[in-house]
Amino acid sequence: MMTDRDCEWLRAVADELALGVLPGQERAEAIAHLDRCPTCREHVEQLTFVGDGLLSLLPGSEPPAGFETRVTDRLGLKRPPRRRRPRAGVAVAAAAAIALGFGFGGWAVGTAVEGASAPAARSSESSDSEHGLIAASLLAPDHRPVGRIFTYTGNPGWVYMAVHLGRDGSGSDVPTEDESMAAGSSDVYPEAGRISCRLERTDGTSVHIGEFSLDDAGQGYWGAPTRVDPDTVSGARLLAADGSVLATAHFDARRNQ
To answer: Against a cut of 0.70, is the pTM above it?
Structure first.
């Protein structure tokens, strides 16, 4: 017989279970609980989906020396004394580390991940407002999927995205391996110029959070630290230098239920 206390315990260890780092005995108990509780099972599935989505976007190159320190300094974080990390922060810390590891400071923009693609679409977008993670697909004006965006609503907050518009701006016309190597990673997507990212709010207003460039194949990865209010953020919009809309994302309204 399940109790609220059982579900409360499962929520406390769900991060570690989704990341595959929960110790054996606790993992067995958690799985047994998931067999009986569809609500907790869906909760863990959402955490796993977001984590897998971030991991699938990892570039195949290492960040430059000192990059981690610069990111930490930029976010105003201090190195705390060594202690056991609270369970509630495991998934958030892992997701943030993945995003920070290749999004900030312009590194990895245009470093095209060979063979990587956005996660398969689901009937509803994955989100977990309790832990501050919200994910959504980026769609071109013709509704083609052209990337994935992740936001973290905790403190400090951040936004990260992977974009592949294609050389014609439609998410198609993927270059061959030889073409990608010939183009290199320093060329900028000529049709779009600097890409502007704006977060949309439920009251119809929007806020500019930064700009980035794509390579000549229309592909890139970018992130920035920013405050994200889970109660008011409704989506995101990517704009070309001339103001035209390249892609939009809509965050699931059910995330706060």
So the answer is: no
